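Might I ask for a little of your time on a matter of protein folding? The record follows directly beneath this note:
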Amino acid sequence: MSPATLAANGAAAGAALLFGASVVATRTVVQEVPPLTLAVARFGQGGLLLFAGLLACAPRLLRLGWPDLPRVVYVNLNPMVATVLGALLLGERLSGVFVAGFLSVLGGVVLVSRGPTR
């Protein structure tokens, strides 16, 4: 295996480990910190760090085209899939307001995924 492949696999494994740990940590921290504050801190800091890293190392990657959009949308569906699985597998209750918000987000994702029409 080439050093580049090994480094890429190591980075992917590290990212998966950090993401998995963040889910567990969020369940604990959300008992002390309001969810919206936690979300802003978590995603805001991560976004700023990612932006700074890309700007310093690979600024050309900061440009996304329409063909890249479905991959970005797929990543953003992860919380929705987790919510549905939590309701189905763990019996978590979903309020009417939550379901309305969930459906509006899903509708937005579908509209964005379609891309421009002629």
Observations:
- Helices lie at 3-29, 35-57, 69-76, 78-90, 96-114.
- The longest helix spans residues 3-29.
- DSSP finds five helices and no strands in the chain.
